Amino acid sequence: MMRTSITKLARPALVSRTFSTTVRAMAGETGAPPKTGGQGDAFQKRERANEDYAIRQREKEKLMELKKKLAEQQAHLQQLSDHIDEITKDQGGEQN
């Protein structure tokens, strides 16, 4: 009985891990994914660049539309201002 208890206690101490690694190292990834703040691999970088480019293009299109609407509104305000000036000149009375 004494012999079996000594063997059972000694066995876990003798067994050691000679080769251990993480799953990420085994998968071949060298950097952390961009979500955790690392750089990521080339595919992730390229995909991120494509997404950023598409977003910039949409924002550029929206900005151009806003500029166009702003120009139209300014032209409309100028027409209204000219019309008001025309009406006040025809009424007479005060010097306009």
Q: Any overview of this molecule?
A:
By secondary structure, this protein is mainly α. The protein is 71% helix and 0% strand. The protein has helices at 2-14, 23-27, 42-91. The N and C termini lie far apart (120 Å). The mean pLDDT is 77. Keywords: Mitochondrion. Its main location: mitochondrion.
Helices, strands, pairings?
Elements lengths: L1 H13 L8 H5 L14 H50 L5
Briefly characterize the structure.
The chain has 96 residues and is mainly α. 71% of the residues lie in helices and 0% in strands.
- Shape verdict: rod-shaped
SS content category? mainly alpha
| Total DSSP E strands | 0
H-E order: HHH
Please give a handful of descriptors for the protein shown.
single chain; mainly alpha; 3 helices; 71% helix; 0% strand; 96 residues; ATPase_inhibitor_mt; rod-shaped; ATPase inhibitor activity
